[in-house]
Amino acid sequence: MHGAINWRTSIFMIHHQGDPYLSSPMASRKNRSLVLRLIVTAIGSFLFVGPCGASGGRRGRWRLLMNNTGVVPMHMALTHLNTVVMFDQTGFGPSSYRLRKRLRGKKRCKATGADLTDTSCYAHSIEYDVSSNRIRALRLDTDPWCSSGSFLSNGTLLQTGGYRKGSRGIRYFKPCNSDWCDWRQSKRSLSVQRWYSSSQLLPEEGNRVILVGGRRAFSYEFVPKHSSTDRSHDLPFLHRTHNRDNDENNLYPFLHLSSDGNLFIFANRDSILFNYRRNRVVKTFPRIPGRGSRNYPSSGSSVILPLEHGNGFQKVEVMLCGGSAPGAYEAAGQGKFLKGLQTCGRMVITGNRHRWKMEKMPKPRLMHDMVILPTGQILIVNGARRGAAGWNRATGPSLRPYLYDPTKESGTRFSIMRSTKVARMYHSSAILLPNGRVLVGGSNPNKVYTLANVTYPTELRLQEFIPHYMDRQYHNLRPQNLSVQYNSSSDSGVGYGGEFTVRFRLGRRWQSKAVEFTAYAPPFTTHSVAMNQRMLWLHGASMVREQGGWVRATVEAPPSPEVAPPGYYMLTVVNGGIPSFSHWVRFINA
Ligand SMILES: *[C@@H]1O[C@H](CO)[C@@H](O)[C@H](O)[C@H]1NC(C)=O
Ligand SMILES: *[C@@H]1O[C@H](CO)[C@@H](O)[C@H](O)[C@H]1NC(C)=O
Ligand SMILES: *[C@@H]1O[C@H](CO)[C@@H](O)[C@H](O)[C@H]1NC(C)=O
Ligand SMILES: *[C@@H]1O[C@H](CO)[C@@H](O)[C@H](O)[C@H]1NC(C)=O
Ligand SMILES: *[C@@H]1O[C@H](CO)[C@@H](O)[C@H](O)[C@H]1NC(C)=O
Description:
The protein has 590 residues and is mostly beta strands.
């Protein structure tokens, strides 16, 4: 605790010129990055030398949540009701979640051979409730293996594609506060089969997505369609980036919506900026330096770095890390596991100067997830050091997450977090929770559920990684009891360019300049791809201190749906690098 006081002191020294008791406008975003950098440095140096306590210190800690989820969470997505939809493939026989009766059917499952292929007698999808730490079974009608997804602006998950009969499937999951909601298979279908495609919600229409790529699908399409004649559109970029041998390396392309409304598409080693309204390539970016590939089955990962109100959200920078060496997929098939890629590249995709800035992770890595934390740092978790994605094509589990701080000086941005004991190889995933922790599940490089006698068994343990900022020693700095109020007759959300009120409690003396607001779009995550993940530093227009440590802040919503497509976002108040629990806020097209 003595350490915490030093730390507070160092922040106050940085900010001594600010008004501590404010009802004044808050620091501009220009000041912010400098201020934040100083704060981060202060936290960093304090934590390095200061007492760490019993809580895990700077390197975070791991906690086992469940021993057996029954179903491998190959795909995960957090709903705005704080539940997590998880699912696996359905095509390779039973999971470990035996149902006593068919879901939604009266007939009981019989212990006959037929039951083993009868997917209705085993669950292949579950819903996990974060606060009660419980799961329940969901029912899938077609196989969503290696599919894609996006949350619509009303919080319903639109999930698309998959395998065999599921490869043209369109499914909806409308979250509810009871045990009755389930998957709904649409009667419509995709124009072409989409296995390993990516999905992005379109900004102008909050219930429509674009799907890009997939195995033997060198095209994109919209869902739902505006007319029956609108089908899939050829995308030559996907032909060009496709390796003709076994490797392919352009599946699950990385998609990021730029704040100018164009779509950044990265596949293999190349990228374009694409105007999907006009079917036109706006920019072709330089190839990322170095050999090897970044997309499935090379399976690096990518994020759009946090967007900032200080530049009007006009500067958009993407980052991607890891992947596989040339020929790694083929080599792994012959038992030779090539070292993965150790590099990350960052590139600004707005403006007109584009250059990849390369940096190195502590170790080579592939099949990892990149999760943007509420502090704006990136957690790199799961994966392996050698090989490629695919059945048993990787070795050397990466047990230590990396924390990447984009605001630090190059060369000092990575730090190594505490190691887990659970290998998370092919078919694992990770997502951010509203309690600031990262949910980690899955791993199954085996075709059928194989719980023993293989190097990497089917993994049914569910864990969370708890970053240092959630430690109890920071509770006195943590904003508490968040609530969000919309400032209009409509209580369904805040319109673009509008303001909303955030109320929270901050116990001790605090600095307005140290208080910041982030909004985070929860992704659909699978195979190292977090579709629709994005984070924004929002502008706090004013803050007023009230009785009993309560603070009332007016926060500006993003200016346009291109900056933040409509839907539910996790709002977090961050005080000197220590985040609150998140509260949902909804941005709407008024
Ligand atoms: C998991 O199983 C172990 C061994 O049976 C048990 O000690 C532990 O409490 C279980 N953990 C949870 C979270 O269920
Ligand atoms: C959201 O929109 C979709 C598509 O229009 C619809 O199927 C779904 O029922 C809606 N969900 C809610 C919660 O209203
Ligand atoms: C694993 O191998 C051991 C020894 O060969 C055998 O006894 C056991 O049944 C096997 N377990 C499974 C789950 O196959
Ligand atoms: C604030 O939240 C805590 C739990 O974090 C709760 O125990 C407490 O009752 C809340 N206080 C108010 C005034 O809502
Ligand atoms: C409510 O929002 C409008 C426009 O978004 C703004 O002009 C007005 O000042 C806001 N009022 C309050 C009380 O925040």
